[in-house]
Amino acid sequence: MTGKTATTNHRKMITVRSVKNSGAFFSLLPIFTVTTTTTNHTIFLFYSTTPTSSYSSSYKFLPPSSTTLSPSIPGTPQLQASDVVLSFKEWFKTSSCALLSQIYKILAAQDESALCRLKLRLCEALVLEVLNYGKDVLSCLKFFDWAGRQPGFYHTRSTFNAIFKILSREKLMSIMVGFLENYMKQRYVHRVRFYNTLVMGYAIAGKPEYALQLFGRMRFQGIDLDGFSYHVLLNALVEDGYFDAVEMVAKQIRIRNFESDITCSILVKSFCKQQELDRAEEYLRGVVGNGLALNGHVVGVVVDALCKNNQFEKAGKLVEEFRKMGIVPMEHAYGVWIRRLVQAGKLDGALEFLKCKKLVDGYVPDVFKYNMLICRLLRENRLEEVCDLLIEMKDLQIVPDNVTMNAALCFFCKAGMEDVALELYDSRAEFGLSPNYMAYNYLINTLCGDESVDVAFRVLRDSIEHCYFPRRKTFSILVNALCRAEKLEKMNEMFLVALERNFMPSDSTYDKFISALCRARRVEDGYLLHGQLNGLNKVSSKSTYFNLINGFNMSGRGDIAARLLIEMQEKGHNPTKKLFRAVIYSLSEMENPEKQFLRLLEMQLSHHEPNPMVYNLFIDGAGHAKKPELAREVYEMMKRSDIEPNLSSDILVLQSYLKSEKIADALNFFHDLSRRRKIGRKLYNTIIVGLCKANKPHYAADILLEMRTNHLKPSLECYEVLVQLLCAHQEYYMVVNLVEDLINIGRPVSSFIGNVLLLHSLKTEELFGAWARSIDVHNLTPSSLMLGELIGAFSGCKAGKDIEIIGELIERCFPLDIYTYNMLLRRLCMSDMDHACKFFKKLCEKGYEPNRWTYDTLVHGFFRHGRTTEARRWMDEMFGRGFDLTDATKKFT
User: Fold this and answer.
1) 746: burial class by Cβ within 10 Å (0-12, 13-18, 19+)?
2) Inside any domain, residue 228
3) What is the extent of the structural domain holding 106?
4) How do 32-37 and 41-48 pair as beta strands?
5) pLDDT score of 174
6) Beta-strand (E) ranges in 591-713?
7) Which side of the chain, N or C, has fewer Cβ within a 10 Å radius?
């Protein structure tokens, strides 16, 4: 078996499984494993004798001596994250990025002496690499100028071509023209042909018409271009669509015998740009048929054009056709084909093609093709294939560039290996890694998910220093993490930096920050941020206003809350009645509450057409703030403004008196209304319920009698609250009459009323006594008699009845609910705990969900009967359901 075959068939494999990315990797069949589990991920090292995926490569994360393979049993050596970091560091250090990064730092610092101290061995290849690495045009120009002045080095056509391309790409035509005008003044001008360089410069700068004019002037003076410059000019004419001039220049090239495979390539490009794809293919085959040499680039041009026109099948056949010929180098065409497949999202096709060409032709793509594949696979979360490609690049000793290193960083983040990613990031100076947007975003997102929010914030600061500000989603994720961790100072710093850069986070992000500030009682800081947003014509969300207003209410600054309340309406947000109540309550707690209250009312009226709804909001708010005099003042203002108060206005004023327990004022207002007009059911119901809540049962009973005299039916709530209050005052005779009246008007006895009666029948026999006396005095309805019988049986005043019979009797009187069953259980617990347990079981079988009082009743009963062990067993079940004992039962424990 050859070494190559052995490497193919017997592989050391690593895969990374992340619990955060369920689709990260497929399970591989292990024979031997070495595992290590960290917080969020597990790394597996596999030894396999057969390929395990359609696209796979040798996996050598570790140096040979770093670990040994052994069966996956306890005590085996573990693969640590530090080993993975070390392996990747060694690979990254083969990159020239560290040197290139250092060169550009020196250029930025304008320190030529430091550049000289690097003792660079200047050559065409190095100069081209430095120029290609640079992102800053000015720094590229500085280096070009510095290199041209160094002893022993002279710029070549390729280096001139590179600097012209940089200037052209950045559309810096003024610099380009100035460069060309000053070109002849430089010392190195005599080393190259002046006119050739100028023609090339204007051609590459996108000014082929100037290049043609200069070319004409040269010919007039008897000067000609060399072959390289002719081809640069020809290519520029094709790029800018001067196709008539293309034919002329091509003819000159043929006449001077400069024609080469480059000429062919440019002409094919010309046909493709004119959408003459069939002609391009025909020309290509004609050149091959005539036995002329071709470079691989020309095939790539046609393949690229076909793919741009969505003719992938035809492009694939063309690639295969020329491969079979065996006379054209296909590496470039392969690269174009892979690039176009990736850009079209045909990743499986690209991976399969790459695998096939590696096996058949030994084709190895350059670092740029690998980068393109890896980045696209990362976007689609195909992490297993990303891992394959990274390890393959490492095995093939392909020198990584900045894109490769950033992609590896993103891979480790996505795979849940944030500790590896962070260590590589922190070591970036060792190998010249310059993180890009994608790497910064992935790293911040991953660290936030791992609750390493302080580290994430440090990475954010680094990114800002390098002029990378996070995208909106990443910004929001970091804000959320800082908010959860209550890192308000860091959040504030983030927002200030964002505003300085005119970066506008989403409304929800601002809202979360302002909410966090309000929760931390830093509402003033939230208000300052809100003011900055207003200055940028940014409308805060409705929830932001709510948070700020509530924050100022809590801090006792009702005046600012009121100002914000008006402002939010101006911005198109409608406040709720609850918010109005809160603001008015806050104003009532300040000095001069009446003045503050009326000022808010005036501001509200100035923004809205006066109507009962606006006034009612303020009457309601004053009532909840227990300022009935303010409520009445607003009521009178309505009338003075010729706005007739409506029924809601009357009810709100009445409620304001009742909530403040101004009973006399409430009665006076009610009787004043009754003298002016006929009172309806709603006003009667309001005052009856209000009087009951104010613990005035007799007044409430009198009003209810008045209501009945006026042939109006009170609401069920009126009867319920009054029955409950009369029972609490032990006015049982009045209770009997009230229940009889309820039945007489055709209303059924509610569960609430029935449960109140049962509760008091358990406490005392007086309720049944009142019922018995009423039978002697009045002719009670059958329903009342049945209810009396139930109360007698429940209180034990009548002959004892089985609990089941009592339950059936209850069902005939009113609907049962869990409260009713709890009272039946309580009655049983007084005498028979075993029967009580059986009743509990039947209750559950009927579909009722036991609550705190159900369990407490059983526990209380067992303690009362001295059955402590059973009581504690029921306590355990009660606690298991999240319920706690009542104070009365806690005394037994």
Assistant:
1) exposed
2) yes
3) 97-189
4) antiparallel
5) 58
6) none
7) N
59 and 19 both lie in a single domain: yes
Number of residues assigned to the chain? 893
Yes or no: say if 470 and 448 are a contact pair by the CB < 8 Å rule.
Answer: no
| pLDDT per position as a tens digit, 377-431 | 998 989 999 988 988 888 888 888 888 888 888 998 888 888 888 888 888 877 7
Residues 101 and 129 in one domain: yes
- Assess contact for 304 and 333: CB atoms under 8 A: no
Spatial separation of the C-alpha atoms in residues 562 and 553, rounded to whole Å: 9
Q: 758 by DSSP, 3-state: which?
A: helix
The whole-angstrom separation of Cα 419 and Cα 42 is 12
Tens digit of each residue's pLDDT (9 = 90 or more) over 71-120: 333 333 344 677 777 777 778 766 666 677 778 788 877 777 788 877 78
Supply the DSSP symbol for 398. P
| Dihedral angle computed from the Cα positions of residues 791, 793, 796 and 802, in that order, rounded to the nearest 10 degrees | -140
Contact between 52 and 28 (Cβ < 8 Å): yes
Report pLDDT for 19.
31
Alpha-carbon distance 453 to 422, whole Å?
Answer: 13
Q: Which residues of 249-267 are buried (b: 16+ CB within 10 A; e: fewer)?
A: bbebbeeeebbebbbbbbb
Cα(788)–Cα(566) distance, integer angstroms: 58
Is residue 374 within 8 A of residue 386, CB to CB? The reply is yes
Q: Is 163 helix (H, G, I), strand (E, B) or coil?
A: helix
Considering only CA atoms, which of 490, 444, 436, 499 is closest in space to residue 467?
A: 436
Q: How far apart are CA 274 and CA 592, in angstroms?
A: 83
Examine the pLDDT at 42 and tell me if it is beyond 50.
no
Structure tokens at 259: 């024609």
Provide the 8-state DSSP code for 228: H
Question: Rounded to whole angstroms, how far apart are CA atoms 209 and 242?
Answer: 9
Helix 402-414 with 437-449: angle, nearest 10 deg = 20
Q: What residues contact 157, with CB distance under 8 A and at least 6 apart? A: 192, 196, 197, 200, 228, 229
Residues 41 and 119 in one domain: no
Residues 627 and 660: their CA atoms lie apart, in Å, by 7
Domain count, the chain: 5
User: Quick one: 28 exposed, middle or buried, by C-beta within 10 A (0-12, 13-18, 19+)?
Assistant: middle
pLDDT value for 485 = 82
Beta-carbon count within 10 A of 245 CB:
20
Least confident residue range of 259-273, 566-580, 851-865: 259-273
Query: What pLDDT shows up at residue 98?
Result: 67
725 domain-assigned: no
Q: Is residue 181 part of a domain?
A: yes
Pair (847, 863) in one structural domain: yes
Structure tokens at 398: 């392909």
The yes-or-no verdict on residue 122 having pLDDT over 70 is: yes
**Residue 69 located in a structural domain:** yes
Distance of CA 87 to the CA centre of its chain: 34
- Among residues 189, 213, 236, the one where a domain terminates is 189
Which of 52, 81, 110 is where one domain is finished?
Answer: 81
Q: Give the Cβ contact number of residue 846 at 10 Å.
A: 9
* Segment 788-803 mean pLDDT: 74
- Give the pLDDT confidence score for residue 170 in this predicted structure: 56
C-alpha Rg value of the chain to the nearest Å? 44
Does 254 have pLDDT greater than 60? yes
Neighbours of 32 (CB within 10 A): 15
Mean pLDDT on 281-295? 77
Note whether 20 and 102 are same-domain residues: no
The secondary element (H helix, E strand) that includes residue 190 is none
Q: Can you read off the two tokens belonging to residue 98?
A: 């560290």
Q: Which residue has the higher pLDDT, 19 or 266?
A: 266
The HSE-up count of residue 803 (CA atoms within 13 Å, CB side) is 22
Q: Among 633, 567, 575, 577, which Cα is nearest to 603's?
A: 567
DSSP state, 189?
A: G
Q: Is the domain of 349 the same as that of 320?
A: yes
255 and 266 in a common domain: no
Please indicate, yes or no, whether residues 141 and 218 belong to a single structural domain of this protein. Answer: no
